[in-house]
Design brief:
eleven-stranded mixed sheet; 331 residues; 11 helices; Isopropylmalate Dehydrogenase; homodimer; globular; alpha/beta; 2 domains
Chain lengths: 331, 331
């Protein structure tokens, strides 16, 4: 029986969305146990699951505007910190939080700890493609600077994930670059290109450009944390900007535009959901000793449920265990 | 009378779109003279303007798949090369091309030449915001690597352009970074932040994030060429990806969706035009001795006309002359 720690106090809809997501997960998956960290009284207001669920009570929590590293050090009884400590101690197998991303990165790095041989864990998320298949991209911003060796490890970790969790055989790995030719980029890209070409354990398909990501040019996309973060935020900003402009165009349009928009309403709504790039719901901090997963701050019960399902698959396929073994070997 | 060189042979719609854009510009602006470079017979098929226009005949041209630096060296009689040489010689005041971007960068750099004191010219374009005001961003990919000093110069050049050509008083300059706090980013960002804070000749508003660009957080956005290129291509890819998904959603939708789409057609079309990020039509290679402007490869006559108007404004306001003066002083 796998045990998953859930920080009940992080995110905009805490603890309700977290607890309701847990209720649903306990109902659907009879092979997991969940430990909720947070205010017991508030949690019990929403908790309907009765078996395989327990509460670790604490009144302290990390807020969204807390300075990450300091919060982790000072708020020793915070729900997120207690959960991370229990992961470290082996009392639980994985954790998820909808709280402060920086604090979760710090908790993962300083409390849960890195895989031996992984210098810089990277933030990974499955991002949307037009065909709905998606691709895994990392690092999305856990680091401001990376070396070719870090990027090489991201290629390996992304491949393990795509293969084990998403079931993609021989995932195609692309290096995000400013052109597709092998000679493109700065020294970081050129050296990484070399490392990836020489590693026969991955299926490297060469450089990929940001304009082709949504067309699914690769199953795993490797970037340094600075560029990955800029790309992710550009996707988010562009998607929301377009939806705003569409709204404006309709609002200032004639009756035809307004009627058209009314008839298209359902389709536009589902489009908006597909395009919620900001929902790095289920962003994995990859390179740690156990799965540490961030679900978006605005997650509802359904998103929390999906993230628990994702963590369950990660535990079932032992993707982290395999990474630990492989990456320690390469060191 | 200002003289503008137009490479008639570059781009998907050459020479027709180029020559027709010139016809219109000659009609509307009586204070410019245009020199067309390319095949005289083909140009004359479309040329209706009769005054203030001349042709420099050549049969050689640079193709879109030519290797840039080599093409510039070997195709000495190419239309783009001849135009650049005439800019250098002072026979014309500026040039525009819809051809091979890399070759135009190389022609600008090696033939037209840099402003004394500007180490690395940057590619700048005015990108769309939701409110239609736009912002100027550079470097969009002329360089794969930049130093804090380069980024400082981009801030100055972007400010001159926004103020002189776009008429924005005290343009707000933002540094693209992975967070808005002053302490964010890698050493390149931190050192650039310092340089921009200390320069009282610009109106530095601090770090800006890619997700806020379309909301118009700054009038000038400064980035290294690698990140700027990734951001531009992400905008393009995301915009086209969304339009593709919208099309799919409509195609697989019911009669309501299809009727809605039909009624919204004009609005969706105008949205698509606003969002044509790939149309860095009028991307200026800033930091050269004279205006060298790239208009998109797929430009039609209207886009060519707009770019000629933009070059005319650059010459009228002497934005390059001012840059030469100011940047040489700072050196």
């Amino acid at each position: 029986m796998k045990k998953i720690a859930v920080d009940a106090m992080g995110g905009d809809n805490a603890p309700q969305a977290l607890v309701e997501g847990v209720n649903q997960a306990i109902r659907d998956f009879d092979d997991i146990e969940i430990v909720l960290y947070g205010d017991e009284t508030k949690i019990k207001d929403y908790l309907t699951a009765t078996e395989r669920v327990s509460i670790v009570h604490t009144e302290e929590k990390i807020d969204s505007d807390d300075e990450p590293a300091r919060a982790i050090r000072r708020k020793k009884q915070a729900s997120m910190v207690l959960a991370a400590k229990d992961v470290k101690a082996g009392d639980v197998d994985a954790m998820l939080s909808a709280g402060n991303t920086g604090a979760l990165l710090a908790a993962g790095f300083f409390i849960v700890g890195r895989i031996k041989g992984v210098e810089r864990p990277g933030l990974m998320s499955t991002l949307p493609t037009v065909d709905g298949r998606g691709y895994d991209m990392l690092d999305l911003g856990a680091n401001a600077e990376n070396t070719p060796e870090h990027l090489h490890q991201y290629a390996l970790m992304g491949s393990y994930y795509a293969e084990n969790v998403r079931g993609i055989q021989k995932p195609r790995v692309g290096l995000l670059n400013n052109g597709t030719e092998a000679s493109k980029g700065d020294p970081l890209r050129k050296e990484t290109y070399q490392l990836l070409s020489e590693d026969e354990s991955i299926h490297f398909v060469g450089n990929v450009e940001a304009r082709d990501l949504m067309d699914g040019v690769a199953d795993v996309v490797v970037a340094d944390g600075f560029t990955g973060n800029a790309v992710l935020k550009t996707m988010e900003g562009t998607a929301f900007g377009i939806l705003k402009q569409l709204k404006q165009a309709i609002a200032t349009g004639n009756w035809k535009a307004k009627l058209g928009a009314f008839l298209l309403k359902d389709r536009l709504k589902s489009l908006k959901q597909t395009l919620d790039f900001s929902d790095v719901g289920g962003a994995v901090l990859f390179g740690l000793q156990a799965p540490v997963v961030k679900t978006h701050g605005s997650s509802d019960a359904k998103a929390v449920y999906s993230t628990i399902r994702q963590v369950r698959t990660m535990l079932e396929t032992d993707v982290i265990g395999k990474s630990v073994k492989e990456l320690s070997k390469k060191d």
